[in-house]
Amino acid sequence: MRQIVDKIGTILSLFSFDRTELGVTELSTELSWPKSTVSEILSSLAGQGLVERTPRGRFRLGWRFFELNQMLLEATPMVREGRRAMQELVERHGESSHLMVLERQHAVIVEKVQASLATQILMSRVGLRQPAHCSACGKMLLALRPWEEVSRLFDNVELKPFTPATITELPALQRELAAIRERDFAFDREEIVPGLTCVAAPIRNEEGKAIAAMSVSIPTYRFADGEAGYVEMIRGAALRVSRKLGFIDGARCRPLHG
User: What are phi and psi of 5, to 5 degrees?
Assistant: First the structure.
């Protein structure tokens, strides 16, 4: 049974924004599995609505995943409370906001509220994985992990540069994370998108554990004139969400593990 579940998980994990359709022969070759095994698994998943067959005989994720995703988001207090806070930020200040969680070397966007008048952020959408070493939310959450754990995460992993401002060396990342841990908020100063600055703060649960981070994204020319205000804005919003989740101000904060 475990082998079957592992095989299902392996196939589903290969779907991505860049690979929205997969074929039986393609998967069989890539995974070195018999075509009959791949075909049987995909047929069973299709029967559950988790994948669907395209007119070309390939497979893509089914609408059942969309339904499950909506159930997950609505059943997660962090997302519900985060969305409310982000909507308030957008309505009051007119800047886009993101809610992210850490998944190994990436920060995954679990919610986004886009301001209609703000600069369109083309590199962000719900479900997108951003490199944690250069995103404000990613660095915020990395900073709350022991450095030994972070260094293992990035062992033999390239710190890919997106702009001249991107951190590309582990010693520099270690220094950056130490500073973030001290002040409890993080910046992305044009490290992914030129001309765009982000600031993030942690969201903590009742145990004081940082479970996510919330950010606001501002064109750099506007951010430069009001940095302190933007920092206070996102810290206040993240703290309000944390309180809704049971966090008590002044409680001892635990580092993020797992």
Answer: -60, -40
